[in-house]
């Protein structure tokens, strides 16, 4: 097991907080995490608003390769429908070269309607785009050549330069918050990435299914699961709970805002059935209920 830190680049709920200050603080925390012995630095990809604004996490990781030499670096995740797979493969190869084979390439398909709209893309296509692009990228990083003749990406065979210098075996990750995404991750042999948005006992069946599917598709032992959660640690339990509820609650509020979980649009979007169920639960329980559920899933407390 290893322990990393996720860089979010968020300013939701902060008054008069300029974007450059957010970025300066996140980079400072990245340096601190590296100095304190964290194993890996991760970053999300998000666009356009206070929820999170890191539009190119591979670009960020290339910078951190110089700022934090020797550190493992990961994307959680590159949102494939918003990118050309050729460019993802090229940028991953360059970043991995700069960090000497320590890049963990995580990929996802996206969830926020507002982000898809800005990119002039239909959320209905996200599953198909991911399932078409991900194998192209994985194969390109394995062979040094990328090609495709699918519905969305007509890519003539071309060599990546610089060529991938290190094997990506064991360094491919895929966000999997639904059963369909678990299967997509298993097909490409990826580590499953899951978030602390519900009690972990509710996650266990999906994790086990992912392991079974990996054995089915590859005949090998499944890779470890990447669990992404909030962690608040203090010396006084009551004070730590209060702090966790305050800041984790603010994150849940920003989550409701960014993904529009109180809306009903998920029911009409192809491939997002699991999120429609989550949205229905959110509407019934409201923000207070969602915070309570998040507190059960996330880690907070004292070392004891």
What does this molecule look like?
By secondary structure, this protein is of the alpha/beta class. The chain folds into two domains: 4-175, TIM Barrel (Alpha-Beta Barrel); 233-304, no CATH class. It contains nine helices and 14 strands. It has helices at 19-36, 57-67, 85-98, 113-118, 126-143, 179-187, 200-218, 237-259, 273-297; strands spanning 4-7, 40-43, 46-49, 52-54, 72-75, 78-79, 103-108, 145-149, 154-159, 172-175, 191-195, 226-228, 231-233, 299-301. The strands form four sheets. Strands 1, 2, 5, 6, 7, 10, 11 and 12 form an eight-stranded parallel sheet that branches. Strands 3-4 form a two-stranded antiparallel ribbon. Helix 6 links the parallel strand 10 and strand 11. Helix 3 crosses helix 5. The chain is globular, with a radius of gyration of 19 Å.
